[in-house]
């Protein structure tokens, strides 16, 4: 696949990158704007683009596929994964903190207003919670995360929503903000006494636990992590969403709200 390594940005490359705005509408326009401005003001200044999807190009083709006609996969409709720059950094420093986790199978959590998870093996990505766009996977600050595509069809057919209205709903009006009606900021939700704020946090943690099981199942050692004793139904509410007690696995969070463990 293209763009699996850093590239020097010129005018044709900038035009090519603009084609990917639909995959990351919250980020790509803002990423390209300063590049364009610098090219206008300092055309001789070298600029290098590093891609948030590149780290996940090590995923097997099977992991990247959707259950769509194969021709669409060949045309680029596949799971790309995001937050790769964050995961690449974690993979680079993890040996300093846990050589065993760095060499083995590790599930890494990137938790913030944008949230995702990545299963690594030997420091390489083997699966990501995010897919074709950055709206897939975990519920986030304002993004839905995993959603039955039939819901989108219903919204368009029965609610009369057009593409832009659906896009705004999925990216900007959902997630922690949409559920709570209070805020997309975990700190504000933890301090709020609104019942829906607590509901939003519970759903956030539930979706993390469910996605953890999915990523573990995509690895050769899934049974080391996923067991009935660790299910959402039986896990004590005081237990964290991820565990390092099972052989061969570790879990690391790049950012974490102040008090989520009490709910997860």
List keywords for this structure.
single chain; 264 residues; alpha+beta; two-stranded antiparallel sheet; disordered C terminus
Report on the architecture of this protein:
The chain has 264 residues and is an alpha+beta fold. The chain is 41% helix and 10% strand. The protein has helices spanning 11-18, 28-41, 61-64, 70-74, 84-97, 99-103, 149-157, 163-172, 175-180, 186-191, 195-217, 222-225; strands at residues 7-8, 48-49, 105-110, 116-121, 124-128, 249-253. A hairpin with a 2-residue loop joins β4 (116-121) and β5 (124-128). It is globular. The chain starts with 6 loop residues before the first strand and ends in an 11-residue tail after the last strand.
Provide a short characterization of the protein structure.
The chain contains twelve helices and six strands. It is an alpha+beta fold and 264 residues long.
Set out the fold topology.
Elements: E1 7-8, H1 11-18, H2 28-41, E2 48-49, H3 61-64, H4 70-74, H5 84-97, H6 99-103, E3 105-110, E4 116-121, E5 124-128, H7 149-157, H8 163-172, H9 175-180, H10 186-191, H11 195-217, H12 222-225, E6 249-253
Parallel strand pairs: 3-6
Antiparallel strand pairs: 1-2, 3-4, 4-5
Helix pairs in contact: 1-2
């Amino acid at each position: 696949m293209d763009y699996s390594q850093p590239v020097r940005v010129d005018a044709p490359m900038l035009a090519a990158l603009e084609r990917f705005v639909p995959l990351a509408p919250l980020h790509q326009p803002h990423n390209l704007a300063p590049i364009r401005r610098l090219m206008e003001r300092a055309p001789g200044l070298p600029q290098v683009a590093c891609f948030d999807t590149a780290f996940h190009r090590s995923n097997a083709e099977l992991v990247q596929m959707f259950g769509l006609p194969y021709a669409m996969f060949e045309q680029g409709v596949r799971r790309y994964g995001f937050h790769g720059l964050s995961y690449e950094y974690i993979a680079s420093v993890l040996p300093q903190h846990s050589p065993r986790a760095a060499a083995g199978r590790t599930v890494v959590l990137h938790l913030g207003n944008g949230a995702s998870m990545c299963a690594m093996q030997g420091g390489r990505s083997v699966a990501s919670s995010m897919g074709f766009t950055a709206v897939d996977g975990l519920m986030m600050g304002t993004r839905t995360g995993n959603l039955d595509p039939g819901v989108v069809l219903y919204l368009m057919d029965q609610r009369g929503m057009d593409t832009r209205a659906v896009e705004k709903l999925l990216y900007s009006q959902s997630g922690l903000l949409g559920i709570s009606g209070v805020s997309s900021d975990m700190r504000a939700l933890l301090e709020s006494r609104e019942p829906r704020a607590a509901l939003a946090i519970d759903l956030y943690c539930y979706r993390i636990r469910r996605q953890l099981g999915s990523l573990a199942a995509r690895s050769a050692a899934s049974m080391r992590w996923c067991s009935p004793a660790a299910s959402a139904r039986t896990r004590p509410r005081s237990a964290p969403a991820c565990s390092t007690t099972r052989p061969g696995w570790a879990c690391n969070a790049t950012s974490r709200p102040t008090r989520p463990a009490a709910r997860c």
